[in-house]
Design brief:
This protein is an alpha+beta fold and 250 residues long. Helices cover 19% and strands 33% of the residues.
Amino acid sequence: MALRPVNVNMKALDDSLVGQFWAHALGWGVSSEGPGVTNVEPGGDFVWPDAAALCVDVVATPDSKTPAKNRAHIDLATTSAEHQAELIARLREHGATPVDIGQGDVPWTVLADPEGNEFCVLEPREIYRDTGPIAAVVIDCVDPRAMARFWDEATDWTLHEVTEQHARLRSAEGVGPYIEFLRTPDAKTVPDRVHIDLLPYIGDDHVAEVARLRDLGAEHLDLGQGDVPWKCLSDPEGHEFCVLAPRGAS
């Protein structure tokens, strides 16, 4: 039994606007599985789910982003200083704005998408040279070691590095982006606007997987989702995530 991260789920007042922005940012295409959802994923012969990419699902919500910094965000990879500068300029043209979150003088640039969701455009780093456009999904936390233990057992991804300050996981296939946990002094105060979706493998028991996560320390969440085929949970530090039902499940 195992679960695989498959999507970055992002809430937005205007899912189409934000979805189009992220399509420009990633060089991917857009589609929609239904009203109020814009799916952003690679083109070509990509077939979801694939560890080579975490797709972005932008889901409409009536709630605006609060002033609080998101506790999960996307880091974008670049291949050269020129690529970094070009990407920043292009994203500014599509509605991104600079954000000061106290980062100081750093080689990466912090921006926000048209609805204020923070993200980083990284300087070239060897570790991210083969991740695709998303280098990592970064989650703020109090205890990276504890988060690493939970997510290492919750998913079939491989734990690459754990320190007091950060932890890093990646698909066991050695492709696609990382999920990283970064120690921060700020406590979680509002629901996450960005979260990760997990998916069981074909033939695995969805109910049993959710029960397994509960045994690991996850909690059920009622976010007003009603009668839906996926389950909303939170990890031991309260970060929301969803366990999707396999396609075709009722």
